Amino acid sequence: MANPAVGIRAAAARDIKPLAAVLATAFYDDPPFVWMLPGDRTRRSRERRLFATILRAEAMQYGAVEVACVGHTIVGGAIWLPPGHWRPDVQPGVAANLRALLGFLGSLGRHLGRASALTKALARVHPHEPHWYLYVIGVGPDHQGQGVAGELLRSRLQRCDQDALPAYLESSKPANVPLYQHFGFQPTGTPPLPPGAPVLTAMWRPPQ
What residues form DSSP beta bridges with 78? Predict the structure, then answer.
């Protein structure tokens, strides 16, 4: 059910810091992040820097990052990557690449290898048909269960349907699979991942 109190809009540069903070809180107990960043005391701060790096270096350039707001407060967000760009691309230029590298090293530290192995494993089974890729979607704990994720999904999926393009995601929690199914995604399997990594569910949605 739609939540009329939630507004969805495109993210701007000024939103990077608050959105990264919300996503870090939302993904604090997310199984892949717990596996990649096992330190409970440092995970949230590391995630905050990681999401800020992803947004600045890889995602914002496509104009497909959306935030969910209650009033003027960001309570959730979705990072979509457009057809042909499901492998996140760092913005061109030596300075941009250096900033991205420092951001990833600073956030992941000695766990960079785990994150890289997980990313490569998912890339090996990623579909190549043109599609929108839901890279990340998260809602702050205080606003979960209030339809915010649904509003974020509905916003971009409407465009997918208008353009007759499918969408793809990997669900990190089995409990979230029914939500995605409600919006037309169907499980396509569980990708083989590095030893010890949690099970992820790949899901595909044809245009509707």
Answer: 66, 137
Instruction: Work out the number of other CB atoms within 10 angstroms of the CB of residue 71.
Output: 9
| Stated length of the chain | 208
Are the beta carbons of 51 and 1 closer than 8 angstroms? Answer: no
In eight-state DSSP terms, residue 60 is G
Q: Which run of H or of E encompasses 20?
A: helix 16-26
202 in Cβ contact with 168 (< 8 Å)? yes
| Adjacent-strand bridge partners of 68 | 8, 76
β-pairing verdict for 167-171 and 132-139: parallel
Tokens (6 digits) for 45: 């701060």
Candidates 184, 186, 189; CA nearest to 201 is 189
* Helix H or strand E encompassing 170: strand 167-171
Task: Give all domains of the chain, ordered by start, each with its CATH number.
Answer: 6-205 (3.40.630.30)
| Tens digit of each residue's pLDDT (9 = 90 or more) over 71-117 | 999 999 999 999 999 886 655 565 666 777 888 888 999 999 999 99
